[in-house]
Inverse folding.
């Protein structure tokens, strides 16, 4: 069985500062990894995904994440935070690409101050 | 192209009643999953349907059930509603023939049990 741990239920940054949201996973086999973002009263929007190949993946809105197998991590970063980045972020894993069954972390709320 | 459509968006039910939620996946998608999102438990997987068959099931009581129709549309039903069933219910679809695709989410149905 797989599991996902997101460190920090809330992360606060100033506008223009680096954003770092942490995600560690546990899986018996190499998983597929995803970051989703959720705005209030909305569904989940995919930011980026790692399937195979390059371990540094770039997503929408300037976000990127690096898959580190040795550390079982998939941290999400953005060089410069914008006010519009304030939302809840979820890391998720799947053992099979193409199906809609995902295991999610608890989520990290990103707060951006002026 | 049209996204995942969930109806209704908001629902208020009384304890003990039953409720049916609907999800129309993206055209061509054959996998549909349902998730329950609550502040305390986060995003929890309910079940997944693929080509009208339940492929995976999460750890929820039998009061939660679902089905998928031949056009891939899915419904989930909750019987004998409890106050703790109040949540945002999200539907996700994926798996287009011949493609590796991630899960796309609808905007959810906000169920309030009073």
């Amino acid at each position: 069985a797989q599991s996902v741990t997101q460190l920090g239920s809330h992360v606060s940054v100033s506008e223009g500062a680096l954003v770092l949201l942490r995600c560690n996973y546990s899986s018996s086999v190499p998983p597929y990894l995803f970051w989703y973002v959720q705005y209030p009263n909305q569904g989940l929007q995919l930011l980026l995904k790692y399937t195979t190949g390059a371990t540094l993946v770039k997503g929408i809105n300037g976000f990127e994440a690096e898959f580190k197998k040795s550390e079982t991590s998939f941290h999400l970063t953005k060089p410069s935070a914008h006010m519009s980045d304030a939302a809840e972020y979820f890391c998720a894993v799947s053992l099979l690409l193409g199906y809609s069954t995902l295991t999610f972390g608890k989520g990290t709320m990103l707060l951006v101050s002026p | 192209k049209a996204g995942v459509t969930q109806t209704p968006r908001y629902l208020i039910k009384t304890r003990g009643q039953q409720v049916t939620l609907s999800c129309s996946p993206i055209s061509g998608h054959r996998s549909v999953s349902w998730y329950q999102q609550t502040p305390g438990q986060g995003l929890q997987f309910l079940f997944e349907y693929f080509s009208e068959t339940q492929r995976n099931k999460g750890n929820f009581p039998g009061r939660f059930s679902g089905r998928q129709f031949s056009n891939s549309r899915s419904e989930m039903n909750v019987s004998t509603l409890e106050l703790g069933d109040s949540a945002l219910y999200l539907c996700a679809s994926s798996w287009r023939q011949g493609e590796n695709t991630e899960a796309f989410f609808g905007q959810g149905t906000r169920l309030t049990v009073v």
Q: What stands out?
A: Chain A has a mean pLDDT of 92. The first strand of chain A starts at residue 3 and ends at 7.
